[in-house]
């Protein structure tokens, strides 16, 4: 079907169902091959990459809406996302729909609310909706090469910045790493989020001081070097640290 | 004038000017007498306390809107506010306007965006708008005693929580303290934000390590004890720390 026609077909139903002027965009980060990636889709129309965002129903809470639309657009079930920013420039999406007239629901001014979540990329299997050619994980290192719709590059950058700030306050990694991991793997995750290399000794000391790790009586087998110790998160202390923060003062 | 009539008078103009379904609420924190306070107004209608919030014009950016409406409602000029949360429960304000019918602009469902800023309370002089009986600073310790409209208590609590998190990442105090201050005064500010007492030795050591303070060749005179040293913020290092964060990793 014609990709323009798909928008036109949705417009009048959208006016009935959704709040005008307000959209939501999920930034789902995954971690794989020591790199962060983000879940994006490419719509049939314009073939630009974008976040799997959408609109909020008149009869649902905002928190419900972001979970529903992520499921609808990307086929992934995520139970909680954290709000990290609101993007409200008046002309942020005006060029995207220039092929349409003002009666199109999707063409009106939208202030969009950004939400993020962190997941182990191997456990989420994206499925594109009918409006999209594909929905997949894209490494952050690939983003400079691809065309992103509207202000979605800025939205992803703000999400990453928020993640960098949060890592000073909250433990991170529970959803991103496999159940058992080595300290070098955890360090790679922190380095990927912070965008810089960390001193190994300092990192080990600080991360152990947080009290969120449990050393297992197992080693990672199969490497060429001495088998490194495996760790898992101490779930109770991890939760406490999530609630109370890492208490720098 | 009848306070209900004031709403009715505003409704049809509001429909022309403002985006529907979207509001913004500023939480302005001040610091005074070793305590945090927040800027609130009491509207003529219902006489409940509330944040000096309002609506966003169709023709302005969201960031412009929050600055404009704060000026209009509270008479204070604040150049920058930071977004900290979005409040999107579908029934968050439905009871507030129960005296009105559905045609009232103000009665529709609003998703509100929370912004905060920190100011030296002695430099901002609030002036109530025509819809309000008063607009003034209220100490956080007084909040349990007063009636707050809608979900504004939850909004203030989330702003305070955000401030507590930010204090681990960013320096705080530049706008809240007078230009020259003593270390005990700075510690009181940190304690007010964190809601707990801090060990003096640890606090002095950590705050000095941040490199954001400049010790002045002056002491606070007039007390009964040994005159304490005065400090000011090293503006350049403070700005750097704001941009780069306090770098815990």
Automatic annotation (TrEMBL), chains A, B:
CDD domains noted in UniProt: NUDIX_NadM_like
Q: Which residues form the Nudix hydrolase domain?
A: 19-162
- Pfam families, per database record: NUDIX, WHD_NrtR
The protein in question is named NUDIX domain-containing protein
Q: Which organism is it from?
A: Chryseobacterium camelliae
């Amino acid at each position: 079907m014609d990709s323009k026609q798909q928008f036109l077909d949705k417009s009048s139903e959208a006016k009935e169902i959704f709040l005008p002027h307000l959209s939501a965009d999920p930034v789902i980060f995954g971690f794989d091959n020591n790199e962060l990636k983000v879940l994006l889709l490419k719509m049939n129309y314009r073939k630009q990459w974008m976040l799997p965002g959408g609109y909020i129903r008149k009869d649902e809470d905002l928190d419900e809406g972001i979970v529903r639309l992520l499921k609808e657009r990307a086929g992934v079930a995520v139970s909680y996302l954290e709000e990290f920013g609101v993007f409200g420039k008046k002309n942020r999406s005006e060029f995207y729909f220039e092929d349409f007239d003002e009666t199109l629901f999707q063409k009106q001014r939208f202030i969009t609310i950004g939400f993020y979540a962190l997941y182990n990329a191997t456990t989420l299997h994206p499925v594109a909706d009918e409006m999209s050619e594909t929905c997949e994980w894209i490494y952050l290192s690939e983003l400079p090469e691809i065309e992103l719709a509207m202000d979605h590059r800025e939205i992803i950058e703000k999400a990453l910045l928020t993640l960098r700030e949060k890592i000073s306050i909250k433990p991170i990694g529970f959803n991103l790493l496999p159940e058992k991991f080595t300290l070098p793997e955890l360090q790679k995750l922190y380095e990927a989020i912070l965008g810089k290399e960390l001193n190994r000794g300092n990192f080990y000391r600080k991360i152990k001081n947080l009290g969120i790790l449990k050393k297992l009586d197992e080693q990672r087998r199969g490497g060429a070097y001495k088998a490194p110790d495996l760790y898992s998160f101490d779930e109770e202390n991890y939760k406490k640290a999530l609630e109370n923060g890492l208490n720098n003062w």
